């Protein structure tokens, strides 16, 4: 997906961009409202991540102008404020959602997906592999044209694996992505989800292979 | 800031009582003065008739061959007749001897000149008014002094005085009653601007700290001026502290966000277990401190707002539904299902921002303690009181600590490993209490916690 990040703190922007690119997203970075307008006019973005306190103005004014210009690119506000009233006013101004800094990257991804789903923007980034069709935004999986319902964690696991077929994912990498930092579970919990995913993919042309001591790999027959 | 005001006396009562008291004193004074004046005039009337009577008798006295003859006309005494049949006494003296009349009258003292002397004497317990005059009669070779005293009881005078007194009393009472009515009117007119000022300030919203603009009487100007100055200072300091809170949050959270994002990105790149553990611990610590900072600021805001509730009609069901939409992406990450039930709409009166904050904290708590792939049931009920029940399938509250969990910074024994500040339940309870409601924590029979937030 293609993101526009409007954030004046260079360090934070670098960190967010680095993290996003790791997941294969394209990120443009603007550190001023002026630049943000320039970017949003020319680029075709799936989502805008907007900081509120910017050097040349309030992010809310960007939001308002953005909406007045009848642009429907979804906007998720990154706020460092905690007051609820502030959040409410941002939603009133046309933000689709907000996350409070510091935010969990997985949570931001989940919110992006939810916003895109609400905007009926499904169909982006659909992956078709053999008899499998996977829409990460809608969270839908069809095998041989038959819809299969996945739980959220199964879905995120599949998304990780299907984006890089043939690549070996160590158990701990998958664990770090799937479980939040305060969940008190062992890394072996990942086996449960691998097992479920295997059952869902029973009739698919995809196989999840366990490589003892190394991790898991998705293979396409 | 409650309604405790050190009240001592009432301006209205004091003003009314002062006016009525003044009127009472004035009424009595007017009564005494008028009565005294009327008595004096009436007495003068009686005195002048007595004097006329005396002088008409003296005029009739002649000296014939050394003997005094007094042949006074009947009218001399009949002019004294009254409605009350006052008794009349007379006595005529030649030199010092009684010539004619009643000897019960006191003898005249040395009378000088032609002046008539009036005095009130006591005759067998009755007060009588007596006029005495003397005249020197000169014959061929004799001269003698004739003095005449006429006395009259004062029945008619008393009757007149009583009648006048009664009228004066009626007049005085009327005057007094009128003054009482006037003093109530005057008091309420005087108090009205004060009341108007109090009303205009009471009716204000909690955020309205603008100066009082309406016209006020001269005497209230210093009060209103200092009130305006006070509100100005309060407004400035509130704005400053709000800006300060926002700025503080920004300053604290932005670097934390940088550290967290870097840590997350780095975590994806390292493979050694001890490095991963260290990074995970770092992220947890960041979450812990940012959450604590956030809730401290929320708590400060709630403490402030609880004193100035901005009440409005709030649909609790709609509010819960919106919150659930916001929180669903987070819930889904743990495959937790947020299930809301309730009838059409549950309308309550309250501060929307506070209520939303409290409910968010309660749902947040339920999310944190729920196991993956479980359900959180949120039920919104209107009767008997608007209330919201949040049930989860987590471990429940520790039974022996359940009463202390709403204390600031207290966390249950089972909270270890879960990120929290110990302020969430305190915030929810403070909000409930600010609205006159309660927060009840209990454990469900089949396991799981139940938080009931009722207004």
UniProtKB/TrEMBL annotation, chain A:
SUPFAM superfamilies: CheY-like
One GO cellular component term noted in the UniProt record for this chain: cytosol
DNA-binding region: 124-220
Gene Ontology molecular function: any one: phosphorelay response regulator activity
Record key words, sorted: DNA-binding, Phosphoprotein, Transcription, Transcription regulation
Domain Response regulatory: 2-116
GO terms classed as biological process: regulation of DNA-templated transcription
Domain of life: Bacteria
Domain OmpR/PhoB-type: 124-220
Signal sequence bounds: none
Modified residues (4-aspartylphosphate): 51
UniProt key word Cytoplasm: no
Protein name: Two-component system, OmpR family, response regulator TctD
Record flagged with keyword Transcription regulation: yes
Cross-referenced PROSITE patterns: OMPR_PHOB, RESPONSE_REGULATORY
UniProtKB/TrEMBL annotation, chain B:
Enzyme Commission code: 2.7.13.3
Superkingdom of the organism of origin: Bacteria
Key word Manganese present: no
Top-level class of the enzyme under EC nomenclature: transferase
Histidine kinase domain boundaries: 247-455
Membrane-crossing segments per the record: 15-38, 168-186
Residues covered by the HAMP domain: 188-239
InterPro entries: 2CSK_N, HAMP_dom, HATPase_C_sf, HATPase_dom, His_kinase_dom, HisK_dim/P_dom, HisK_dim/P_sf, Sig_transdc_His_kin-like_C
A family per Pfam: HATPase_c
PROSITE patterns: HAMP (PS50885), HIS_KIN (PS50109)
GO cellular component annotations of the record: plasma membrane
Compartments, as annotated in UniProt: Membrane
Catalysis performed (reactions): ATP + protein L-histidine = ADP + protein N-phospho-L-histidine
Major place of residence: membrane
Keywords: Kinase, Membrane, Phosphoprotein, Transferase, Transmembrane, Transmembrane helix, Two-component regulatory system
GO MF: phosphorelay sensor kinase activity
Entry coiled-coil feature ranges: none
Name of the protein: histidine kinase
